[in-house]
Amino acid sequence: MNWFEKKAEKLKAPETEAHLRDLYGRDTETQRAQQDRYLKLLRTYEQQFGPAEKLCFFSAPGRTEIGGNHTDHNNGRVLAASVNLDALCLAAPREDRMVRFHSEGYAPVSLDLSETEVNPAEEGTTAALIRGVADGMKQAGYRIGGFDAVVTSTVAGGSGLSSSAAIEVMLTGVFDGLFNAFEMPFAERAQISRRAENLYFGKPSGLLDQMASAAGGLVTVDFADDQAPKVEALQYDFAKKGYALVVVATGGSHADLTDHYAAIPKEMREVAAFFGQPVLRGIQETDLLDNISALRERVSDRALLRAFHFIAENDRVPAQVAALKEDRIGDFLRLINESGRSSYMYLQNIYATNADQSLSLAQRLAESLLTGIGAWRIHGGGFAGTTLNFVPLEKVENFVALMESAFGKNACHVLNIRPIGADRIPL
Questions:
Q1: Are 351 and 364 contacting, i.e. CB atoms less than 8 angstroms apart?
Q2: What is the average pLDDT across 274-285?
Q3: Collapsing DSSP states into helix, strand and coil, what is residue 425?
Q4: pLDDT at 329
Q5: Are residues 160 and 208 in the same domain?
Q6: Ramachandran class of 386: left when φ > 0, alpha when ψ lies in -120 to 50, beta otherwise
Q7: How far is CA 56 from the centre of its chain?
Q8: Which residue segment(s) compose the domain that 56 sits in?
Q9: Are 56 and 163 part of one and the same domain?
Q10: Same domain as 265, residue 143
Q11: Same-domain check for residues 49 and 189
């Protein structure tokens, strides 16, 4: 039995197959597809780097934002879940500090981690994320080293499921699993990942994406203390209640939208600064109403609308959580629709240009099928990308057909909630 066959046998072991069912779902077709995906990555590693021992698979999920649209960066509350789409890496340690990183569909990346300071020339690249995560791990007292890795991902860039956070959290797993004990707390994974995205990659994200990917499962997070957010795991099976979570990718890309994303927290903080506060958390709607004239002299009307959105959206999250805990699915769906309406009207993160209003169209099409029986809203950062829809199971086929007639084949992803965050499978 050659090297590949020996490693492949470990993938087919009953305990590994059971683990993959927990990650991706239990139907036979999904299991077969994931086995093939893992085996293909194993073959790719052999072709790129040759046989190696101390090999491990590392996986980190994409996330779906269910409640709390653009609240995390102003110390707000969110409701989110990790999903059964992931960034998957097969890696082995090296004796030096070199990283060779081959990601499917992208040019190979090679870098030396002897230096982990910010390199401005790497901004916006995978190399920036690798170096940023390595530096964060080192600063937190973890060992780092070089490695060879091949990577594939079902969390498509621009999908609204946070491909960058999945890669970042996956990288914390690589360093933790290859050079440490793979015992890093998920909140620390998230903090290190967000730091890499902000300081090294140059994207001013909040902590929602990384926290949901690192934690796994359905979680509500309160960012009142940004350095020590409170995370509560929730148990709710939407499928058993008769609903599928369907994300619709409308074809828009998040590329070149950084300025639009950055304007949202910036404008919210301008309103907060009027009250002498760094963020909007703690400011009430009555505060805005009582000072509306003076506020309009200091900030733009859009900033005010975004502040009104934040305050209401932040209050909606605990109401959504309570509806799930008390099994009031109708109230929950109503709150999801309220969130979508607020994002559309007040947050205004639906489209960046008049030429591309695909997200608006996706929501109007959802409204035509789901009024009174489901829910729909903008998903994630907005301006391009995806919508999130709660679709009755008996309507999923019709819903997918309509959306894919508008946005193309495979525009829809029917998601399962994945109970595990960053994960490791040794070979």
A1: no
A2: 98
A3: strand
A4: 96
A5: yes
A6: beta
A7: 23
A8: 3-63+80-221+420-426
A9: yes
A10: no
A11: yes
Structure tokens at 375: 């829910």
Residue range 35-60, pLDDT digits in tens: 999 999 999 999 999 999 899 999 99
The pLDDT of residue 1 is 85
Backbone dihedral region for residue 57 (phi beyond 0: left; psi -120 to 50: alpha; all else: beta): beta
pLDDT in tens, 132-172: 999 999 999 999 999 999 999 988 665 556 688 999 999 99
Query: What's the structural domain count of the chain?
Result: 2
Residue with tokens 């070199």: 98
Q: Are 15 and 60 within 8 A, CB to CB? A: no
Question: What pLDDT digit, counting tens, does each position of 231-269 carry?
Answer: 898 988 898 899 999 999 888 665 667 788 899 999 999
The count of residues in the chain is 427
DSSP-derived secondary structure letter, 399: H
Concatenated DSSP letters for 30-72?
A: HHHHHHHHHHHHHHHHHHHH---SS-EEEEEEEEEEEE-TT-G
State pLDDT tens for residues 338-370. Answer: 999 999 999 999 887 877 899 999 999 999 999
Looking at residue 374, the DSSP 8-state letter turns out to be: -
Check whether residue 252 and residue 173 sit in a common domain: no
Query: Across the chain, which distance is largest between two alpha carbons, in Å?
Result: 78
Q: Which two tokens stand for residue 263?
A: 């304007």
Give me the CATH number covering residue 350.
Answer: 3.30.70.890
**pTM (two decimals):** 0.82
Q: What values do phi and psi take at 256, rounded to 5?
A: 65, 20
| Shared-domain flag, residues 11 and 152 | yes
* pLDDT of the residue at 351: 85
